[in-house]
Amino acid sequence: MTEAIRGAGALVLPHYPRLPGVHPLLDSPDYRSTRLRHPLLPPTDLPQRLTEITGPLLGEGRLDDRDADLTRQHDSEPLGQRIIVHGRVLDDGGRPLPATLIEIWQANAGGRYRHVVDNWPCPLDPNFDGVGRTLTDSHGRYQFITVKPGAYPWRNTDNAWRPAHIHFSLFGRAFTQRLVTQMYFPDDPLFFQDPIFNSVRDVSARKRMIARYDHDATQAEWALGFEFDIVLRGRDRTPFEESDDND
Amino acid sequence: MTERLGCTPSQTVGPFLHIALPWPDGPFVVPEGTAGGFWVRGRLFDGVGEPIPDGLIETWQADPDGRFDHPDDPRGAKKPAIAGFRGFGRAATQADGSFEVFTVKPGALPSPDGSTEAPHIDVSVFGRGMLDRVVTRIYFPDEADANAVDPVLSGIGDARLRSSLVATTCDDGSLRFDIYVQGAHETAFFEL
In whole angstroms, what is the distance from residue A80 CA to residue A14 CA? Predict the structure, then answer.
């Protein structure tokens, strides 16, 4: 039974059930930077009202083809293994989310970001910015063409390295669905020592951040394919879809 | 009940969010020069009161009529009267933890239980060292009566925490809303 919300004004809102155990705890001591950046007080319950069940529907008319092809944003192509990353954006009821904005960012093939605070001794690639955007199509599908990002060192602990990853930012259609995550690559040997990846305690949930090598999407003599479906928190069935329950 | 798919977990935006997420018009919930527009300014602090220079603030709100141009609003999607009203704002924090968005005051909203929500702005906070966003709300200092009966605000038992969600008015007409992720001044956050 859904938490049917109905009142004097007959305002009936969809509800997005919580996802216990999916998201990492903000207090994850192995990732040291969380120490002073997680609230200590328990959060207050926020009933989902009009502001939460709506959200920005952005991006139409703001993007062009090159936004989704990170290998064509300069005069020449970037170095590295060319890859095609594709998939669907769905809610957890399996419904595709069309026309939703996806933003990605990543390191270059050597593991360096084009960012002022990234200055480890790995060259920048003059032909790679590492930034992409696209909208899902009417079936919730998306595709980026890019190069495989390199692993890179960071100072969390001695000799710590981030596994190769691509940052993904998604809006869905409601404030409740907003998600920022990271896509990882299959069989990365660095997983065991990465506290960000392992901050997701549930093993099956953690695996959902790993793309699948997709030979059908691999293009002969051109690029390797990876499939990465993203599942956002979904709506409970609305009272209208419920079996009859007369008030 | 049909079986549900497992959701994709959240991860931190990390320290390099600036190459992708800030947009030139990100802070403009309404276009510059919009009548009645004002800045909401604040700073983002960590548990020892140091500014967080690698955070991202996002805002989402109703238009001044209390409506959303969104198909899931059961009252119907409604185009805002203000040209260029986006409802959404995004600002990366600066070296001193500061952020700003330019907006207009949202209208009050009906609630399914028959109560009325005081004008408010939903806020998501992302940052390096934050594995998931935290969510809070901005309320308005000139809405004391409406705030007093707001069903969300009155769900917060502690008076200091409740007041942490009410912005303050500055001499230049802007609103100030500092966010303390942790510590003695910790802002009230919500489980969404």
Answer: 45
Could you identify the residue written with the tokens 């990100």? B26
Q: Which of A24, A43, A56 faces B131 most closely, judged by CB atoms?
A: A24
Residue A237 pLDDT level (bands cut at 50, 70, 90): low
User: Does B4 map to a domain?
Assistant: no
Four-residue CA torsion sign, B6, A14, A38, B38: positive
Q: Is B67 a domain residue? A: yes
- Please count the residues of chain A: 247
Q: For residue B54, what is the domain's CATH number?
A: 2.60.130.10
Question: Which two tokens mark A69?
Answer: 């092809």
Burial A96-114 (b: 16+ CB within 10 A, else e): ebeebbbbbbbbbbbbbbb
What is the side-by-side order of every strand in the sheet holding B88-92?
A44-45, B190-191, B134-139, B120-127, B55-60, B88-92
* A13–B74 CB contact, under 8 Å: yes
Per-residue model confidence as pLDDT tens digits over A46-78: 999 999 999 999 977 778 889 999 999 999 999
**Distance (Å) from the alpha carbon of B123 to chain A's nearest alpha carbon:** 10
Residue B190 forms part of a structural domain: no
Distance CA A15, CA A145 (A): 35
What domain count does chain B have?
1
Give pLDDT, residue A90.
98
Whether B5 sits inside 8 A of A90 (CB atoms) is yes
* Other C-beta atoms lying within 10 Å of the C-beta of residue A68: 20
* ipTM (interface pTM): 0.97
Which residues span the domain enclosing B101? Answer: 24-180
In this structure, CATH architecture of domain A57-234: Sandwich (2.60)
The residues of A assigned a catalytic role are: 113, 152, 162, 165, 167
- Pick from A11, A129, A208: which is nearest to B8 by CB? A208
Distance separating alpha carbons of residues B26 and B102, to the nearest angstrom: 9
Q: Where are the domains of chain A?
A: 57-234
Q: B11–A230: do the CB atoms touch at under 8 Å? A: no
CB A171 within 8 A of CB A49: no
DSSP state for residue B151 in the 8-state scheme: T
* Structural domain includes residue B11: no
